[in-house]
Automatic annotation (TrEMBL):
Residues at the catalytic site: Y106 (proton donor), K177 (proton acceptor)
Lineage of origin: Bacteria, Pseudomonadati, Pseudomonadota, Alphaproteobacteria, Acetobacterales
One Pfam family in the UniProt entry: Malic_M
Name under which the protein is recorded: NAD-dependent malic enzyme
Cofactor descriptive note: Divalent metal cations. Prefers magnesium or manganese.
GO terms for biological process, alphabetical: malate metabolic process
Residues reported in the UniProt entry to bind (S)-malate: N421, N465
Record keyword Heme present: no
Every Malic enzyme NAD-binding domain range: 273-537
Amino acid sequence: MSDTDQSIGTTSLQIAVAGRELLDCPVLNKGNAFDARERDLFGLHGLLPARVATLEEQVDLARARLAALPDNFARHIALREIQDRNETLFYAIIDQALEAWLPIIYTPAIGRACREFSHIWTRPRGLFLSYADRGRIAEILSHPRWDNVRVIVASDGGSILGIGDQGANGMGIPIGKLSLYTACGGLDPARALPILLDVGTDNTALLEDPEYIGWRHARVRGADYDAFIAEFVAAVDARWPNVALHWEDLSGTDALRILGRYRTRMCTYNDDIQGTAAVTTGALLAAIRAGAAPLAAQRIVIFGAGGAGCGIADLLAQMMVAEGMTAEDARRRFFMIDIDGLVREGMAGMTDGQRPFAQPADVASGWKVADPAHVTLAEVMANVRPTTLIGTSGQGGAFTHDIVAPMAAQSARPVIFALSNPTANIEAMPQDLLEWTQGRALIGTGGPFAPVSYAGTSRPVDQINNSYVFPGVGLAVVVGGITRMTDGMLLAAAHALAGLSPAAGHDDAHPAPLLPPVSDLRLVAMAVARAVIAQGQAEGVAPQAAPDAVEAALKAAVWTARYRPYEKAETTRK
Ligand SMILES: O=C([O-])CC(=O)C(=O)O
Ligand SMILES: [Mg+2]
């Protein structure tokens, strides 16, 4: 298969398979849109009905069928089946109306799709590498089918969205994230590889489900788990030296440990930690432009001190330092709350990600608290009087009226980002947040919400989702030849995102969103990619290239959902 010149619609692809094998290959299949010439060339006569359809006709028909289905879960399943049959058609369906389709192919529908993955799974996609396969990972990866892979999303299903351990059912997420790499970042689907590292599960409902598709075993942990990951990473690195290895939805401590271990050795990043941090940082920058307290005056409470919470604190602190604060002063601005309450020095079980943000052991000595050994969110809120409250806890409804309302009394524009996903796990509903703060809060959520009305105005709800960042990062790696993902590049992504914010001219009469709309995610991915490549060049982790050349390469790399004419490669098998 040759690369195509996207600017010339007629550039053809050299195809080395034919007949039924061609129809069974989702990245090449056109269904009944193969024309007479191609039916001749590839031996498709008889395998397809006589009428030759266009992509547009296929899209219209599919959209009508999808519209007739009872709900978005049914649409998710149907779309995934289309994707497994014909990827071009799948992306053409969701093209043009990303805002409408994202909640169906991704969050929140994907939450239920993961819970029920064993029951809706029909065809193989990507790779399931189970612990029982250890010792032969390199062999499995060696299949020529994967020769063109440039971006891998890998999960062990340990902490899917806000819904916890889903074992092998977590495969829904690598598949979904890679769909967004293509839909938003223009990644050629032939270069995408979703991987589920099946190390067992501790989810008893799954272990007891006779239909469970995964390796029926308690989750492997500790040194055995790390050795399995090490074998996987070494095999990936040897097979694809320039691949982007994206980790997703590992449990918090595994996520931080693995990222720390490998990020200096290869181009690898963790989306929950770094992607979420970059989008949150970009959104906070935008909120500050819209009237939130300036960075130097921010006090930030983060409820949920796992990978995402720690990643957000880390990147925000780096931004504060970049703007002139000392590292010590910056760290003290954060109040992280985990299962054991406010994270303080000397606490048992503190993770490496939490340690820099531990408050002094006696921080609460002058506060009124019920149990000094466990300082709660409500107690922190009452005593710290934060300007920003961020939820990464997975605990639906944790931000109650009593937690939130006092913020409005203390700051003109409190910032509240309730990021947990899917909808049942969100810390507070946007409508409530606005009402409890008399419409003054600058709010954001992790998933999609319809605009909410407050005092006669309709207010869009910003989706502070890492899909504003990772598609652009992937594009940067593929086009820019990036070899390491640095914090500087994440900050550059955050600034690029804030640069597109509609919020700069915000006033009370004309409330504007913090982030550009989801329908602009392609534009956002381009801006993020540009910024990440420029920063990578400045840091010496990407080859130098003139901005014009980068721009041209970015445009040329973007895959679009249309059928290209096929020619027979020399080696076509019939
Ligand atoms: O997937 C999303 O929508 C955001 C995310 O990474 C998570 O919640 O784990
Ligand atoms: Mg995630």
